[in-house]
Predict the 3D structure of the following.
Amino acid sequence: MVEVRLENITHIYVTGRKTQTLAVKDINLTFPHASFCALLGPSGCGKTTLMRIIAGLNIQTSGHVYFDQREVTPLTPRERNVAMVFQFPVLYEMNVYENIAFPLRSVKVPESEVKRKVKEVAELVGVTHILNVHPSTLDMGSKQKVVLARALVREPNVFLFDEPLTNLDPLGRLEMRSKIKELQRNIKTTMIYVTHDQAEALTLADKIAVMDFGVVVQYDEPTKLYEHPKNEFVGFFLGNPGMNFIQGTLEDNAINFGEFKYDVSDVVEKLKEYGTEFKIGIRAEYVKVSKKPFKGAFKAKCIVSEHLGTSTLLDLKAGDKEFKAKLRITDVKEGDEVYVQFPKEKVHIFNKAGELII
Amino acid sequence: MGSEKTSVVKGKLSNLLSYDFFAVLPTTLVFVVLLIVPLITEFAYAFSTLTEPFSLGSIIFVLNDPLYLWSFIRTVIYIIIDISIKFLVGLIAAVALRQVKGYKILWGIFLLPYAMPLVPALYVWYCLYHPAWGLINYVARTTGLTSTIINFLGDPSIALYSLIWAHAWRFTPLWMTILLAGLHGIPEEYYESAKIDGATPTRTFFRITLPLIKRYLLLNATLSLIWTSGEFVSIWVLTKGGPANSTHVLGSYAYWYMMAGGNFHVAAAALVCAFPLLLVLMAIFFRILGWR
């Protein structure tokens, strides 16, 4: 139960005699105690590096890591008392019981205590029935559960997950996801979860730090990230599909997209400070679509219609602008002419570089 | 109905003759000609003598021959010491190389003994061991380590061990290479996970690394066992079984009876009687290393 605080963390990998890579750059983050936070970003954004720095597997080039008030930079992973679950299940060549007991025996916990604790976490994670089994005979999901148990048995200060679901099949992934969520509720330990899968981050985390090119772009609660992305990257990266971004030019009191216009008369003064080129962003599920004309709607053509089970995803085109709409029920087919409207309260305006203005 | 059934059977039979049969024929022939026939011949020789076609004479002869029993014992000693040296040195070298970044150059150097043809490689040791002008004796004398000359290959009490060392020297690089491949196959996460779990380097090595390369050790041990149990070249190049028959092992014993003594039957019997040894030792290895 600690608060993890990162202060001005920069890490540079020396990759060759003269080449080096800047992995993370001047990062300041605080993970509140007993919270579940996710580090989300595309491959190579520095999220794993950041996690390894928290674990103590890498020592940052500059900056400080604090657990509560204590600086832990000079401490080994063991001294920091962190637990880590890797992408693929790392299980040692010994049976499940011994695997779970390994960290305890490493620090010479009395055998009776080991027995009690192993039994306890085995029940918690649900691996009691396979305690005497050799891991090589287990499926990926069970293996990862054993790893989870081994991490839990030490009662760590901080729990680190490095894309633990990536190697599981879809069913195992769902099961494991709810297991992790359940654990988090029960044991109340600070958990930090690295993933590139936005669905995982959105469902599991209390707070998400979205990373790109070694910096934290936005650190917020999932709903806020989803509804109010700070820039185009966050908007597009979160959600399935990502937010629609349509570029246009400010003319009079509206942004002109060629075939249609978006009225900005109420904020035109503010927009003028940012030039004339703007992007509007709207989530696909907020786009209003109808086959009949309605007030404020413009015409578009449906190019692709995909059925997703509970909803339908339409690829729409108006002039040379393309965007997506996600609808619950619709009879729009490919090639149909439709009427579209962007509800004012759901539209965000970004400048040309993709930074949020309104 | 009946005729239909027979036609099905007939169809199968003709299929068997026309295709399946010919498909497996080459493999079967190779197997029979190269494996079964020589093996049967060997047993046939073992269970006969120069004068009698069916007899236990040769078997009884070798089992009563003290030299055979000693050769047998020396073979076991040879195998155990040889594998121990290769195991220890090979493992230490592999683990050390695993830590080095530019390990490939070092690995190439370490591999040199194995890259050399066997007879010249052993001859290197003949030169090193030589009592008069061998390097080892020279160094031992000039540094004052010993005042007497050590006759590595001429002293019956140490000749066998000198042989074993030369042989192990030649084959350790192979062990090292295979173990190194095994070590490189262990993902970095294992070591990181061990570090996080608070294991000391020693504990990590014995509880995590070693079990993960167990199958490579077993592979090495099995191959060594098979090759060394019939060891002949090192003996024949360096001592020819001498001095005073003190370095005869099964392979040289059989060879000596066949070539010098001209008795195929005794030679075959010597090897047939050693068969159980191989099986027992292999079972022990499998037991120790717990093949999975």
